[in-house]
Sequence to fold (271 residues):
Amino acid sequence: MVLEKYKQKRNFDSTPEPAGDVTLATTRAKKRARTDGLFFCVQKHLASHLHYDLRLEYKGVLLSWAVPKGPSLDARTKRLAMHVEDHPIEYGDFEGVIPSGYGAGIVMLWDRGTWTPEVDDVDAALKKGDLKFTLEGYKLKGSWVLVRTRGGPGGDAGRSWLLIKHRDDWAGDVNITEFAPLSVKSSGDFADILSKGRPEIWISHRPAQGGEAGAMFQRIVERALEMRDATKTTTTTKTAPTTKARKAASTTKVTKTPKATAKATRRKRSS
Fold:
């Protein structure tokens, strides 16, 4: 059944995540697969560990990979991407707090846009484990590839892929996760998403109370505040951009290539 694994892992009475319309997803899946104007997004997820979820629309669902270190614009860098359950299309706009259960933590909509396959047959490419595609997002652009590996953490063969940026005008040595850390939906950071500017209330009134779950969520809250403090410290240095500039860089579409951005940064630092 479409979205079966997704639904099995969640209790929609306690999570704000969209349940997804199975009938609609099934109908979409039966239609001739589109190969243009397909939606993609990357959700930055602060759970027990920080990771980034790459999602590609295909046949009525979002194919999904969890990328622990996030995407890299350096073509020499191969990032582990663990294939996870398909998500509903509606998930592509989700940003918020999962208070308990599977995936408990904070979800940020870090990037979104469209993707185009660079192969004639997406199904064959997925089966082979070699999917080439082009992204047109706010932060991620250009040519990429997902390559399945033989092994995987814990011997979980088949789920382990590598996300690699191809060499093009959008490849470069800019750390895009640090350069553009904020949400493309709300322009906020994790602490903003946590409680709309009042994250301190989650310290004493977090929804997952007691036990290991409660302790883990408190660590998540503390990490969100630490990340905000680290960003504030960075923006007060002489060479750092202002908070306003950082938000602009995080949420507006990139119009310069990473190579041009990197060169401009080096010139600014040497002046």
About this structure: Residues 238-246, 267-271 have pLDDT under 50 and may be disordered.
